[in-house]
Amino acid sequence: MKVTYTELPRDEVLAALGPHWPPRPGATVALIGETVAVTHGAVAVHGTDGRPGTTWWAIDGLIVPQDAGPPPNLPGCPTATVPEPAVDTPPLT
Q1: Cα separation of 65 and 92, whole Å?
Q2: Which residues contact 40 (CB under 8 A, 6 or more apart)?
Q3: Which run of H or E residues covers position 54?
Q4: pLDDT digits over 55-82, tens only?
Q5: CB-based contact 23:82 (threshold 8 Å)
């Protein structure tokens, strides 16, 4: 597997992600920011030499689910689940 990271301006990535940002609670995201210096841009994964690969948008060091599918399993890039938002409970009276 060959992986290419291409840095791009954050606003361009946000425009490309559209409804996929921010990720929904319960979604699985890949944490690339812990492994590579690219925090905003494109991540292209080529599984077979000479064949087209798949590209995901990366933002804030994350690859989130998008039209390309769920985040890829990348060496050294762990996955995490987006937590459910905290529920504020009214005070007891």
Answers
A1: 39
A2: 7, 8, 9, 10, 13, 58, 59, 60
A3: strand 54-59
A4: 999 999 999 999 988 999 998 999 999 9
A5: yes
Q: Tokens 């920011």 appear where? A: 33
- The rounded distance, in Å, linking the Cα atoms of 64 and 26 is 11
Q: Is 67 helix (H, G, I), strand (E, B) or coil?
A: coil
Please give the structure tokens belonging to residue 82.
């987006």
The helix/strand/coil state of 64 is coil
Q: Is the pTM of this model over 0.90?
A: no
The 41-46 sheet, strands edge to edge: 2-7, 41-46, 54-59, 62-63, 28-31, 79-81
